[in-house]
Amino acid sequence: MILAIDTTHAIGSIALVEQGVVLKEITLDGGDGYSHLLFEAIAELGAAMDTIDGFAAACGPGTFTGVRIGLTAVKGLGEAMHKPAYGLSNLEALLTFAKTPHAIPFYDARRGDVYARLEDGSEVVMPLAQVLQLATSGAEWISFEPIEGLVLTTAPRIIAGAIGILAENRWREGDRPDPASLDANYVRRTDAELNWREA
Predict the structure, then answer these.
(1) How far apart are the first and last CA of the chain?
(2) Residue spans per domain, the chain
(3) Mean pLDDT in residue range 103-112
(4) Smallest Cα–Cα separation from 54: which of 1, 17, 12?
(5) For 44-58, how does the pLDDT look when each residue is reduced to its tens digit (9 = 90+)?
(6) What is the second-level CATH architecture of the domain 2-90+157-198?
(7) How far apart are CA 168 and CA 57, in angstroms?
């Protein structure tokens, strides 16, 4: 069984996954941050820690604080329970909702940009117009919200279950990452770095 967390954007979630099935998934409102919500939500899932085979978190891209909170939580749980911990891209999680093999998941990154996973597997942050130019003809578009003038597959904002399924697949393949090895996938620099460059 995998316990998975997503705190990378405004609406987060936490889930339990077993044998490819999302047993329970809880929505988290990140309006006031996630740090005070996580362990209450873990208790609400109702799973004994010794029944968990591994922990997983969305490692980005997303808000810097949100990414760090989710990763820190699963690192701590993994270390404490001597279990593997997985960091998965939330763009990869969005890709699990694709209906075709040629799909590009994306979502708002603010500053006029989107985070996107291109068809070659690379993850970028750039204006949507540029992403459209890089796509092959007939590519399927996947995002959280409809975009005027673009036909797309709408994915749910609650993706902890998808994160958990991806992690469980890796666990079944024998991958047992050390919690200390987890790293964030910010895709772009922090606001402080961007502001410094603009100055």
Answers:
(1) 49
(2) 2-90+157-198, 98-154
(3) 92
(4) 1
(5) 999 999 999 999 999
(6) 2-Layer Sandwich (3.30)
(7) 12
